[in-house]
Fold this protein.
Amino acid sequence: MTDQRDNIYADSLAEPGLFAFDDRVATVFPDMIKRSVPGYTTVVAMTGLIASRYASAGSTLYDLGCSLGASTLSMKQNTLPADCRIVGVDNSSAMLERCEVILATDSHDTPVELMLADLTDVVVQDASVVVLNWTLQFVPVEKREAVLRGIYEGMRPGGVVVLSEKVTFEDPHLDALNIDLHHQFKRANGYSDLEIANKRNALENVLIPETLASHKQRIAQAGFSSCDVWFQCFNFASLVAVK
Ligand SMILES: C[S@@+](CC[C@H](N)C(=O)[O-])C[C@H]1O[C@@H](n2cnc3c(N)ncnc32)[C@H](O)[C@@H]1O
Ligand SMILES: O=C(O)C(=O)C[C@]1(C(=O)O)C=C[C@@H](O)C=C1
């Protein structure tokens, strides 16, 4: 099936800060995210690979901010030890309704439970893998430390967190360069300058990126023993952290 093309920002002037994961966005999401996030397909595929390395028998794998279940499916379709289950969490009902339909078409055995919830309210329990793929960036900055601490508390020793985020750079030249390269990537994927500007406006104060140094510091403070970047393309990076 071909993805429905994202032209949400093609002709309307977006109001600042009004981006939401509503029905309109959920409908075009696979096309939107692939054309907007450099490395999306690679990071999703490697999430399954990393999960299969760290998952332990009888444990739970969490996909926090699962949207349409791309990372959930990637984990489910990799080899996992006996008696694992996956919990996908999202606070958008538009996303979760579609996610359920997509997951129903997959025949791999690992059971998946979907939860319509704010991830800041979710108690992580007996986890070997916790994935936050482009989700923490939408959680208010002041709540992010408690989220990471809660995840740490609910994980088995030796478990892994995969954290993918849009990031900023301390060096103003590098920050401007990476924002520019990201916009060039979007242009190359068929977005117009108006669409790029409109989406940027809509994401203002909704998606709040931080530096890699801030993420690493928060992860270390939460107690994780090892953490580093395993993938980066322009201002999109993915980290692994091990308990
Ligand atoms: C960019 S999408 C994630 C993409 C997805 N992880 C993937 O791999 O395709 C961000 C998702 O996080 C969800 N989200 C944002 N804030 C959330 C929160 N506080 N609690 C739960 N889900 C949240 C949104 O509804 C959206 O579906
Ligand atoms: O389009 C952008 O500029 C983005 O920052 C990409 C991004 C993301 O990182 O989550 C923003 C919102 C949509 O969910 C899809 C992609």
User: Anything to note?
Assistant: Helices lie at 23-36, 40-54, 70-76, 93-104, 141-153, 172-188, 193-203, 212-222.
